[in-house]
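Comment thread on ticket #2218

A.B. wrote:
> Attaching the input chain for the structure job we discussed in standup.
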Amino acid sequence: MTGQQRIAKFILVSSMLIMGACGLMYEYVLSVMGNYLMGTSHEQIFIIIGLMLFAMGIGSLTQRIFTGYLLETFLLIEIFIGLLGGYSGIAIYAAHASWESFEIILYSFAFLVGALIGMEIPVLIRINEQYSESLRVNLSEILSMDYIGSLLGAFLFTYVLLLHFSLAKIGFLLGLANASLALLGIIFFWKLMSWRYVVAAFLVFVIPALMAGYFLADDWSLQIEQRYYRDPIVFRKTTKFQHIVLTKRADRVNLYLNGHLQLSSMDEHIYHEYLVHVPMQLASTRKRVLVLGGGDGMAVREILKYSDVEQVVLVDIDPGVTELASKQKDLVALNNGSLRDAKVVKISPRGVKPGEVSDLGIINRRDIAFLDHHLYPVAKIHLVHLDADQFIANVEGKFDIVIIDFPDPGMLELAKLYSLDFYRNLNKRLHPHSLVSMQSGSPFYTREAFQCIGKTMERSGFHVLPYHGSVPSFMGDWGWHLAVPATRSIAEIKAKIADMAKISVSTIFITAEVLRASFVFGKNYFSGGEEIRINTKMNPILVHYYKNSWKKW
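C.D. wrote:
> Ran it. Output below, let me know if you need it in another format.
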């Protein structure tokens, strides 16, 4: 083999490494797009990856029609993969914003990109045949690079691209990678190609188009995304875990995660007062409080109204949310700066460490005559960025109050936080006198899911009382569960509820009368729930209940 042939072989084999990485990352980009836009991550991941693999098979069959001009064919395939894959994200996003049946666009891009990927591998094997001593060597060289490239692509997408670039920009970066391979091929194999000028002409058009798309991607996506929201977007960011959007018009501030409303400044106090003050008012001891979720700091704001609270541990998986809530002026105003002095705790992969602690205080502004603005210590707050399931399984010590503020269980990765195993581990972190409040969705719109959460908590060793109230921005009736360890008398809790005369801290909405009434449901409200099953990690039936409930509306 001559030196020129060795270089050609190296270029072809190296190209397969890059192609393998890009091919897998295209699958990831389209799957994540399906997750963000349709809110059903596990379904879209399975469907899109399956569809693309099927399309790869179709592409592998189709490439048999190319009997000549293999170099030109391969380079054109790379160019078209780059163009389609590069613009896929922004095109799908635009279709979702303006067309009800946008799934056709999503699946069409997945099929076309998959088919082209299916073509490129066997075509490259056929080209490399003249540089390999045998079919055995040829296949091992090309396919091994494809598989190694897939692993590299998985790490690159997860730990680099998804953390530093938007999905739209990732698509354009991958497109430029494919176009760069085509450019390298044109340069090296120029004299061997008969249709060299045709291929070069396509590339001259595609590379500037992809570069323009990359630099304009954020502006385009902002213009498209604004169509989803009635108020102007003032902040948007995609983290490793979710897409965060903050909107504002006049005094109305709304926070969205993956397109779903998490809070509105118009009525978030209603939601958080129900979530926090019900267990806090009924507690006999509340020195150590755990908040799971609630990275916006609103629940912590309510907890810090109690002077006997000594420690708050806030566990939220996404530092992007807590950073926003501790720095963005509108959210800081809403949560009264409840996270402003918190320090991010570094967690050992093998367990949970206590990390750093900051004194957290409030300024006494009640005595206006003396202008007393002294900072009085209220509590110590720990901020832990970790999956709540891992935290509960590994943390040491016990808590007096646990406030659980997770998103609704519409995805598999969230269903585990409502599972039998999770609640059993939670039970181990409680004193006999402890209380737990759990965000549980709408008992009206998602009745089966609401009942499933309650039944699962009961099966794990809790006494459970459901309660509800009206939260207008959440479409009205919203629900929570109050839980106590089975070792504690539920009759005692009911008696405390019945005897409550007043709320001991300042509130905007909730009163003792409102609190008592929240435990009352209408006649036959939960009739027909006898067949509801419990939710486990191995059988996340809660996702099914949740989705089916919303389909009825």
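A.B. wrote:
> Thanks. Noting for the ticket: Residues 260-522 form a domain with the Rossmann fold fold (CATH 3.40.50.150).
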